[in-house]
Amino acid sequence: MRSSNRQYLVSVDHLRAFAAVLVLLYHGTYMMLTEIDRNREGWLYADNPLGALVAEGHTAVALFMVLSGFIFTIGTLGKDIHYGRFIGNRVLRIFPLYLVLIIMGTGAYRGDADLLSVVQSLVGLGNLPGSLHLGNVSHMWWAIAVELQFYLLFPLLSRILTRRGPTALVQLMAAIAVIRGLVWLSGGGKIAANSFLYYSLAGRIDQFLLGMLAAWLFVHHRDRFQSPAKVLIAATLALVTIWAFNRSHAYQEGRTVRLIWIDVEGFVWALLVLTYVATVTSTCLASRALAKVGEMSFSLYLLHFLVITVFLARNRWIEPTGNPVWDAFFTTVLGVLPVSLAIAAVTFHGIERPFLRWRRPYLDPDKPRIAAQADGTRALPDAAPAEPAPRPRTAERSVGTADR
């Protein structure tokens, strides 16, 4: 069982590494491009799916959201969650590095910080007006706020999934979609798509829920999704879907299709997570090395933007091809990425990891596992998954590094 748990954790870390690196490539390519070719304006529209993946690399945030819902649910399905300990563990996971950045940022941009903005950012409302905006230091903090808001809801959502089954979450998503559509249409075209759907739990909640549904399928029907061919199909579907989104110009132009894209994007990533984690069990040296990047993904996510701005401030880029887009991409891969990984290793081991050891189990080990069937009916105790969820300590590790 312990070996199986380790294999599961490694495959999850692979996906976290992929998401963090994709965000870095996305930001690095666009920001480098604006300096290498200052006459260029507008969005990048790719002629192939891999190019579109980088051009729409913001989609990695959706993958992170799906992964959060997936990993938390894998570790808790069918168990009661001690709410206080769960939130306490999330604080230990997120806040050490976050607080260091707040201290550094307020010191550097003292005139842009006040007590109310600091408090607002600390209580999980950093994606709303009035929160801290500390230059490039705080550029990635909005996602922390969305994650923290989901953490407050997750124990309740987990209980609903356990007691009533996946149908209840599907119904919840449908209700949220109806309300969201009404709000969008009532705005008469004046609602900003990114503020409403991208930077807010109002849009992101669907992706968390899709991750939870993928976890339910993993626990109950893992064998049905276990196949390299199915991983390839899921990956191809994700690439083609993102390419189509890129060609539609929907992100930059804020079209109504963004209302549907939330769920389409979440679905393709949830399918990839489900098939990949069900299939990939390698623990070879290369696999473990990639997993280490996934472990450091929170540091990589929060700090890569600063690394990019340092490169730009010192005019550190290369132009080997003469094509501004390719030069921006190569500078990011060959320069920004290795420096960001090195810095992330330092901050993970020096700031994040010591606090991770303080976390406590938040699952009730004394109550029997009771999980609902697909139709919402209750199963008998201990009848749900053929392969039990990780033991509390292992589950702590799995959910503890899920955030970025």
From TrEMBL:
Enzyme class: transferase
Annotated spans, Disordered: 373-404
Enzyme Commission identifier(s): 2.3.-.-
Domain Acyltransferase, chain residue ranges per copy: 10-344
Keyword Cell membrane included in the entry's annotation: no
Record has Transmembrane helix as a keyword: yes
Pfam families, sorted: Acyl_transf_3 (PF01757)
Residues annotated as transmembrane: 12-33, 53-78, 90-109, 140-161, 168-185, 197-219, 231-246, 266-286, 298-317, 329-351
A GO molecular-function annotation: acyltransferase activity
Swiss-Prot/TrEMBL keywords: Acyltransferase, Membrane, Transferase, Transmembrane, Transmembrane helix
Official protein name in the record: Acyltransferase
